[in-house]
Amino acid sequence: MARDPYTVLGVSRSASDAEIRAAFRKLAKQHHPDRNPGDKKAEERFKEISAAFDILGDPERRKRYDQGEIDAEGRERGFRQWSHAGPGAEGFGGFRSGPGGPGAGASFEDLGDIFADLFGAGRRGGFASGSGYSSAGFGRGRDLRYRLEVDFLDAARGAKKRVTMPDGKTFDLAIPAGINDGQSLRLRGQGERGPNGAHGDVYVEIKVKPHPIFERKEGDIYMEAPITLKEAVLGGKITVPTISGDVSLAVPKGSSSGAVLRLKGRGLIKPGGARGDQYVKLKIVLPEGGDPELEEFVRRWKGAERQSPRKHFAKA
User: Fold this and answer.
1) Where are the alpha helices (DSSP H) in the chain?
2) What is an example of a GO molecular function annotated in this UniProt entry (predicted)?
3) pTM of the predicted model, to two decimals?
4) Residue from 214, 239, 205 nearest 157 by CA
5) Residue 263's beta-bridge partner residues?
6) How far is C-alpha 143 from the chain's CA centre?
7) CA–CA gap between residue 150 and residue 166 (Å, rounded)
C-alpha cells in the first residue's frame, strides 16, 4: 500500500503548490537513478517520490485526495468494476477528461522543466539516455471521465447496457445492483494512450433518474400508497409495486393516513449481500367529486363527535 504522499514529500497538508514543487525537486535530484546508478533503493524511492508528486502536483488530484475520493495510489475509492454484455444502446453525456496515472499530476512539459533545472537544459524533455526514465515515460494516457444517466429501476436492480462514447467506441457494461447516484464506475485501460504506450482509464459517473413512485434512502425504498376509506376502516389486501415486482400488502383494520407499513427485504442490495426494506406510507383518498351517500352517512355518524384528533394542538 502506498504511503501518504504528504509524508513521502515531507510536507504538511497545508503546504502551498510552490512548497510541494520545491520538495519534489529536492528529493528527485537526491534520489534520481542517474545520480545513484545501480542503487535499487534509490530507484524505488524515486518512483515513490514521483508517484506522490503525481497526486500533489496537480491541484485537482490533490483536492480529490484530500477529500478521500482517491487513495495514495491515485485509485478511485468505492469504485466497482463491470463486466458482461447486454442489449440496448446508451449514450454517454460528456463529463470531462482529465489526467490520471503515474506522472499525470504534472504535465510532461512541467516535468521537463523540473528535470531541466535539476540536470541541465541539455536533458530537457527527458533524462539521461539509457536510464530508463523520461519525463514522458512517467505518464500513461489520460483518464477520461463521463456521465451516464440510468433509470431508477436499472440502478436498483442492476442492468446490462451497451454504451457508446463520444468518439464512437462502444462498451458492454453491467450496472451493479444498488449503485448510488453520483457513484463512478471504472474501465481499466480504456482511456487515452500515453507516450509510453500505457492507456489511462475511463471513469463514468452514474446519474440515477428520479422515479415517479419510489424514493431511495440508503438501502431502503419508500413510497406512498393511496387507499380507500373502506380499506382504511375495514382493512384488506392491496397490491403495491416493489423494485422486484408487485406484491400483496395487508392493510390493518382502522389504518389512518400516514401509517407506515414495512415490506421486509424488498429494498436494495446492501454491501455484504443483505437487502434493505421497503416502507409503504398509507394515504386515504376520498371519492373524486364526492359521494352523496358517504356524505349523508358522515352527517348522521354520532361517533365523529367522540373523536378528538387534534387534542395535542392544545399542548403546542
Assistant:
1) 5-9, 17-31, 40-56, 59-66, 108-119, 152-157, 229-234, 292-300
2) unfolded protein binding
3) 0.54
4) 214
5) 278
6) 16
7) 17
